[in-house]
Structures are given as structure tokens and as C-alpha cells.
Amino acid sequence: MARTLAIGLTESGTEMSVNEDTFSFDQHVYPDMITGGEEKSSGSSDYTQLFVVTQGVGGPGAGDLAGRILQRASRDMLRHITDYKKPELDFKTFADDLMTLAHARLRGRMARRGKPYGVSFALLLIDANMAYVMNVGETGLLLFRRGRLLQISKFSVSQNREQDDVFHSDEMTTLNNGLPRDILRSDIVPAPNTLKRFALEAGDIILLTSSGFFDNYNLSDLTLNLAPTDAFAATIRQAQIDSGMRDRSNNRTVLAVKVRDLSLETPRLISEDRRSESVVETQLDDARDYVSSQPQKKAPRRRMKTAPMTAEDSETSRSKPWKTFLLNLLAGFLAGLAIIMVIWYFVVR
Predict the structure, then answer these.
(1) By the 8 A CB rule, do 276 and 290 touch?
(2) Is the pLDDT at 278 greater than 90, yes or no?
(3) Which strands make up the sheet holding 37-44, listed edge to edge?
(4) Fewest CB atoms within 10 A around its CB: which of 25, 83, 217, 255?
(5) Bridge partners, 22 (sequence order)
(6) CA-to-CA distance for 203 and 15, rounded, in angstroms?
(7) How many angstroms separate the Cα of 173 from the Cα of each of 57, 133, 160?
(8) What would the mean pLDDT of 94-115 be, rounded to a whole number?
(9) What is 2-263's CATH number?
(10) pLDDT at 306
């Protein structure tokens, strides 16, 4: 399992009436208010951990609501994560079902709003010591590992750029009714821009960002700032501030997750069709070997042999309660007599 430390920050743009960005971890969605900024941090050692950043499109009452609908759908999918383990997690099917569920809820809850709306999102799912990531639309995913800041997301499905150390500025995708074509909308279920998995390493830092975070920010500076092993939270706070130095008009959100350490032992999993068994994970390159440990047989307890009770022993055991009662009665009598004599000596005399 991975022990993680997460910090999320979001801030409304100066030209935005509401904050259409959200971030979530520990089954809670932030910000609590749809205006202003918010910062939250938390640590976790759960076997399965979910982190999501959304970037809504459509304005007040549309983009912000679309983001929270996606957040709720992702949490509901997490409750059924064991259904996708065979025993390896089928992340592609999980992602497809998440998109289908979120799309159905968008259409059901927002069909009558009369204006275009949609949502981009970045998702990180940690299961044991593996990371599964996906992004849709204009959100970003970054991995800081061994002194390098790697791009693990793409903005558009039409572009096939090789992985680089930092983000490149990408052109806006084709618009339809004012919305990018590769975001999740009521009329489109796009293919994810990114769908990857990789084995975690201690010290990894994974960043999920909205487009406002890096539009006017040189991420090469972030590479240098993340290099020290301490001051993780302070570095992310400063990065959020720096992202708004040139232009504060757009909403800006970043959710950073640091892997503190890893453990190979996994908890007992409950299955409907068979009894659970403890599982030990061994990582070899990009594969996982599952070894089911057999329950150890308990040695039978030896009972002490007792000798049969004789008639003399039986008579002795029956006489003990009476003897104890008489001794207690005599002790009580003597104690009472002593109290009476003391009272007589000091009071009556």
C-alpha cells in the first residue's frame, strides 16, 4: 500500500463570477463555496485512494454543477472497485463505465438548462502500489520523479506528442456550441486523452491541474522547487501563487499527491463468490504477481488429564464453604466486640 500526503488549492478567477473548478480526496469535494479560494490537505494509507480535479465549462449554474456531478459519479464508481479486479484492475473498463455514468447524469440533471455545458477532468486512482491516471479535455497530469517533471497527459486526442519534461501550449480544439469537442458533454462521450498506469515509487509527486494553473506559469521553475524533499506543502502553495502572477482572470486549481512510502502487504479483500485470502504483491517491472497465502493449521490444544475425584476429596470440598462461613462469622463478631469496647472506653466512661 502507498502512504500519501495530498494538498489541494483552488482560487476563483477575477473575471469569473463562480469557481467552476473542483478537487476531491478523502470522499469530500472542495471548494465548499463556489466563490473565492480554498486549501485542504490530508494524509492517507488506504489501499485504494481516489483524487480528482474537474474544470467545468458553461458558466454559473452549469459548469460548476457539471464538475460536481462528475465528482459524485467517480465516488460512486469507487464503491464498486472490487467488481473490476480480476484480480488485476481493469482500468479501461472502469474508465469507460465512469464516463457513461457521468454522461447519463449530466443529461438527466442538466438537460433543461438551455445552454451548453461540459466538464474536463483529471483522475488519479491509487490501488495498492499502482497508479492509474486519466484525463479528459483541458486538465493536466504531471509526475515529478527523480528530479524530472514529466508530462503524463495530453490536451487533445488529435495530437500525439511524445512525453516531455514540461507542458507545451496546445491550440484549442474544434468548438461546437462554444465548447471544446473533447470534453465530457451531454451530447458527447469523448475518448480519454490519457489512460495510463505505472508502478509508484517512494518520493513520487503527482499533480492534477486545471488549465488555469499552468497557462501563465513556467513549469520548469516547479521542477527546481520540487527537488527538495521537505517543504512539500509550501512548494505547492507557492506554485499556486506563481500561476496567477501574470493573469488571475481564470480559475486555478492544483491537487498534488506525494507518495511518502510503500508497502508490499495488502489487506484482506472480500469477494462474493469465494472466501477472502490475504494477498502479497510482488512487483516485477510492470507486472504484479499475486500469491495467496494458505491459512496455517492450528495445532490441537492438549487438555490436562485430571485424576478422578475420590470420596474423601468430595467430602473435603463440601466442608470448605461451611468452614469459611464460620471463620468469617467469628472474625465479624470479634471486630464488633472491639468496636463496642472502644466506644465504651471513650464515651460511656
Answers:
(1) no
(2) no
(3) 37-44, 2-11, 252-262, 205-209, 140-145, 148-151
(4) 83
(5) 54
(6) 37
(7) 14, 22, 14
(8) 83
(9) 3.60.40.10
(10) 43
All structural domains of the chain with their residue ranges:
2-263, 264-295
Q: Which residues contact 91 (CB under 8 A, 6 or more apart)?
A: 84, 125, 132, 134, 195, 197
Q: 60: how many CB neighbours lie within 10 A of its CB?
A: 14
Can you give the pLDDT at residue 277?
Answer: 30
pTM of the model: 0.70
Q: Can you tell me whether residue 348 is helix, strand or coil? A: helix
All three cell numbers of 224: 527546481
pLDDT in tens, 154-186: 754 434 434 333 333 333 344 445 666 678 877
Phi first, then psi: what are they for 161, rounded to 5°? -85, 150
Tell how strand 287-292 and strand 279-284 pair up. Answer: antiparallel
Reduced to 3 states (helix: H, G, I; strand: E, B; else coil), residue 40 is strand
pLDDT score for 218: 75
CA distance 336 to 170: 100
